[in-house]
Amino acid sequence: MAGTAVLGRLTWLVAEVVGLVSETPRVRTIVLDVPGWPGHRAGQHLDVRLTAEDGYQAQRSYSIASPPGEPIAITVEVLDDGEVSPYLAEELREGDEIEVRGPIGGYFVWEPGGDEPLLLVGGGSGIVPLMAMTRHRAATDDRTPTRLVYSSRRLEEVIYRTELEELAGRDDGLKLFLTLTREQPPGWEGYSRRIDAELMREVAWEPSQQPAVFVCGSTGFVEAAAGALVELGHDPLRIKTERFGATGGG
């Protein structure tokens, strides 16, 4: 049975683009209809494969943005030297088909109903798997006390900004903390520095509360954020991290 499940996850499926959402000038969400999709958990990712007319293939991994039980969605940021992301984020149209396989990953996942509070820390497009968790929490009416700390360069680059603000306004135990590291609009009352131990001391749960911690972003961001939490006394074994790598998009 286990072998069958693994083979099922590794099978390439044809996915049709059924929706496109511009999140920021350089980021787009792609909603997919994937016949045969086995279902996923919040925090997992999938592989995307593109095949050119001459047979050349390119493959990248993307976090799943949608919660379990909803149509598969990935959110793609254009990378200047990217081979796949410019096509997905700028050229793909509704009705087009791409190949996907997944879901992949069983470590960086969250399930509702736990006893411990939740701390989500994201940088840039590292918000994507954390958004799947946040949406899953909302969709299941879970009331786990949650703090979401999101670092972006400027306000117009905050992915899912309107939805995040709406979710944080539901008064169901979710608190949103934004920090803009490069540029802040007039009257900005949020944070305006990179995530460090001082900032985390102000916004994170106390180590004694033993929160479940998920950190996602670039390697440098993850190392800084996770390091700051360990410095404050959080158990490294309770900090799950996911880094952008060579297969994280391009």
Number of domains: 2
Cα end-to-end separation: 34 Å
Across the major sheet, the strand order is 4-3-6-1-2-5
Compute the CA-based radius of gyration.
18 Å
Rounded mean pLDDT is 92
Shape: globular
Give, in order, the helices and strands: HEEEEEHEEHEHEHEHE
CATH topology grouping of the largest domain:
Rossmann fold
CATH architecture of the largest domain: 3-Layer(aba) Sandwich
3D structure, described in words:
The protein is α/β, with parallel strands linked by helices and 250 residues long. The chain has two domains: 2-104, Translation factors (Elongation Factor Tu (Ef-tu), domain 3); 118-243, Rossmann fold. 22% of the residues lie in helices and 31% in strands. It is built from six helices and eleven strands. The protein has helices spanning 2-9, 85-91, 127-139, 161-168, 197-203, 219-231, and strands spanning 13-24, 27-33, 45-51, 57-63, 72-77, 97-104, 118-123, 146-152, 174-180, 212-217, 239-243. The strands form two sheets. The chain has a six-stranded antiparallel beta sheet with strand order 4-3-6-1-2-5. Strands 9-8-7-10-11 form a five-stranded parallel beta sheet, sandwiched between helices. The radius of gyration is 18 Å and the shape is globular. The two termini are 34 Å apart.
What characteristics describe this protein?
250 residues; alpha/beta; Rossmann fold; 2 domains; 6-stranded antiparallel β-sheet; 11 strands
